Amino acid sequence: MWQDLFRRRHVLTRLADGPWGQYLEEFATSLAQDRYSVATMRRSLCSADHFGRWLLAQHLTLADTDERKIQ
Fold first, then answer.
1. How far apart are CA 32 and CA 38, in angstroms?
2. What interhelical angle do 24-33 and 38-57 show, nearest 10?
3. Which residues contact 41 (CB under 8 A, 6 or more apart)?
4. How many structural domains is the chain composed of?
5. Do residues 20 and 44 touch, judged by C-beta distance below 8 A?
């Protein structure tokens, strides 16, 4: 389902291969159920990917994060 939100193959590949690629379907389903627009869903999926990649670059897991570390 989330793949239908994007047209560019490189975006699909980047998201699927990203640190949270396995969770994108569930996240997209949740956004759709909450009736977010397609544009908001796209931005949210890309933002999640960017955040996951940032965590990897910082050698952090989601469990390691708190508001202070993110700032």
1. 8
2. 150
3. 2, 5, 28, 31, 32
4. 1
5. no
- How high is the pLDDT of residue 70? 67
pTM, full prediction? 0.84
Q: How many whole angstroms separate alpha carbon 71 and alpha carbon 57? A: 15
* Structural domain span for residue 64: 2-70
**Distance, CA of 6 to CA of 32 (rounded, Å):** 15
pLDDT of residue 56: 93
**49 within 8 A of 17, measured Cβ to Cβ:** no
Q: Dig out the tokens for 8 from the structure.
A: 């560019």
pLDDT (average), residues 40-60: 94
